[in-house]
Amino acid sequence: MDPLSAVIAVLSPHAAVSKPISGRGDWGVRYPAYGKPGFAIVLEGGCWLALQGRAPVRLERGDFVLLPATPAFEMSSRVGMACVASEPSPRPLRHGDPDGPPDFRMLGGGFQIERANAALMQSLLPEMIHIRSAEADTTGLSRVIGLIMDETAAEERPGGEMILQRLMEVMLIEALRHGSPEPGIRAGLLGGMRDAAVAKALRAIHADVRVRWTVADLAHIAGMSRSAFAARFADIVGCGPIEYLSQWRIALAKDSLARGGTPLDRLADEIGYESASAFSTAFRRHVGCPPGAFARACGPASESRAIGRDML
């Protein structure tokens, strides 16, 4: 499995919500940080989106945006508009003049990912992924989001939860395949997969996580010197190659522990640790608790799949 597909499989997106958003004339809204993934695609007109601490970005018709962990943001019809404080809502929204046909329309929504690896999405993906329709074909994403809206609007169709999860996976893969971070935003795994040398190392890690990889091994695969590779990997992905390997092993462990049923010694072997003791030590260092305590905390009684608030 390639790195992007592997990460999305572990994140297991679910509990999608979506709604139409429209506006007319001058308007501006401000939302607090949400912390969960959000997405939007512009159907008509355009608007400005400004993440907290970032310069405004223009969204045009057909543009798609994915926020892996939605921060506080403002959205407006033009730069400099006074923004009204708002709270996320699952209901359709109309901004600005309530009368007359809208001059701006978008579909916005949000979803949840497995709690066990929520931090993984934030650490490996850029703060904002923006696909410009002028640079890439977003027709497929538009169709997928339309299907997500249809499914979320339906009343408990048989198999609906699984269909939604698959649609969310397709949307994420499409977004990561074609998207790019805004200038000045760390590229993370997305950038790593677009760098020929770093991508070779990432594919090797994900192809066999049990291998006791060294920086020298991965540098050889990348066709670079050890020091140049280590610096390049850290600059693009945001952490060193061995730290990335450790993060991915712990992510796999969290996923397995949350599901239950795998003995620690077997799990340790499956993800590349010499013993259950070595695995437990590494897990405690990364997570702050032993594997057993984590597994109990992630049991069915503690897992909530309630539908979250919308992004916009």
Automatic annotation (TrEMBL):
Keywords from the UniProt entry: DNA-binding, Transcription, Transcription regulation
The keyword DNA-binding belongs to this UniProt entry's keyword annotation: yes
UniProt key word Transcription regulation: yes
SMART domains attached to this UniProt entry: HTH_ARAC
Residue span, HTH araC/xylS-type domain: 199-297
UniProt-listed InterPro entries: AraC_lig, AraC_XylS_family_regulators, Homeodomain-like_sf, HTH_AraC, HTH_AraC-typ_CS
GO MF annotations, alphabetized: DNA-binding transcription factor activity; sequence-specific DNA binding
A Pfam family reported for this protein in Swiss-Prot or TrEMBL: HTH_18
Organism superkingdom: Bacteria
Protein name: Transcriptional regulator, AraC family
